[in-house]
Fold this sequence. Notes:
By secondary structure, chain A is mainly beta. Chain A has helices at 20-24, 156-161; strands at 51-56, 58-59, 69-74, 99-102, 111-116, 132-139, 146-152, 178-181, 187-188, 191-192, 202-203. Helix content of chain B is 4%, strand content 23%.
Amino acid sequence: MVQKLDYLHESPSQTAGPYVHIGCTPNFTGIGIYGGDLGTSMKTGPVKGLEIIIRGTVFDGTGTPLRDAMVEIWQPDAAGLFPSANETRGAADPNFVGWGRSPGDMNTGEFIFDTVKPGAVPFPDGRMQAPHITAWIVARGINTGLHTRIYFEDEPEANAADPILSRIEHQNRIPTLLASKQPDGSYRFDVHLQGPNETIFFDM
Amino acid sequence: MSILNGPPKSGGFIPRDRVWQPDALTPPYKTSVKRSPQAALLSFPTTLSEETSPVFGHSILGDLDNDLILNYAKSGESAIGPRIIVHGRVLDENGRGVPGALLEFWQANAGGRYRHKKESYQAALDPNFGGCGRTITAEDGSYEFRTIQPGPYPWPNGMNDWRPAHIHFSIFGHGFAQRLITQMYFEGDPHIKLCPIVGILKTQEAIDALTAPLDMNRTVPMDSRAFKFDIVLRGQRQTYFENRKEGL
């Protein structure tokens, strides 16, 4: 026998179910409470940097849009600083929340985020990562929340030098991580849970 | 177990145990079949993007946010059903309390009915029950809220599947890597062992980890029973010996 390793197990994940919006965006479902839903606005005043809109839809393996998903994003400000209690490199833009949550459109499921283009942040070894946003997707039928990253199609040099993107074996799947610039200046980032265009999901 | 508190130390997050956690594709839970990624997940150590997290201050909370019996009820009225207190601690895998963690919870009413336009179960709505609440953990990671015990309900999966009574939890820790949604079940519910969603859990130990025992010590006599539900988030590595650049 050996001594016991006294660590705890992470609580097992369970699906967010069909009514995640009741718990996380109750006002969206018609339950008026809390004075509004968290994550609706990522800005509390004028922000520094390039303001951008990101839209997208989550599709299942048949190509059907999910209308009961919830998407959250988390990102640094335009200077690459996180509005987080454990950000030690400097103070982030005080008017930028860094976190957004979208229940998707009631009819189409399309999510939308009104944010800023993130600055670059370093990898643990000091190399710079390409500008990116962390995204987290939960819904009925998703047993553990899916974690992916939104990189930007119009950052080819930074993407080519990125410590993670450059290490991906199936380089032909990288476009699934790139937000594409639309004619109106916004970005589009669709998520495919399954199928030939399946989004790269992370275990980080 | 030592009980230490405070912000996490530097060091990346301990990898999520994908053997312990449920698989993505679990055919008895039918909706997972077309909503489960088929390619392998891309594994990397966490970076600042996953080691930081939004901050939610206690100032966002209203007085009744953690009281589902009253937070949607008309003045002088209250939700119908067995009154219960749910309490516990949010810990990390190292056993440390996680302070300042935002918990959001949602549930069906005592009859098993959700307040949602897509809900089709015939059980009656309770006009005084909204079904959602939230709180933020204290310095030692503890939390509590008051609600009514939700009822089991049927759902479209197999021809006759019923969910055990449960409360959904959404939890933020100190790093976005800790983000978690799970469900709490109630001790003794005979539906637990029949449910295809509980059935995605791979071991009895995992089911037990989501099953809250009746806690008579926290029960308020002649008022509310209590159930205890601890939640464990991913921990961070604790070491002086961090990765060094090559050659050092």
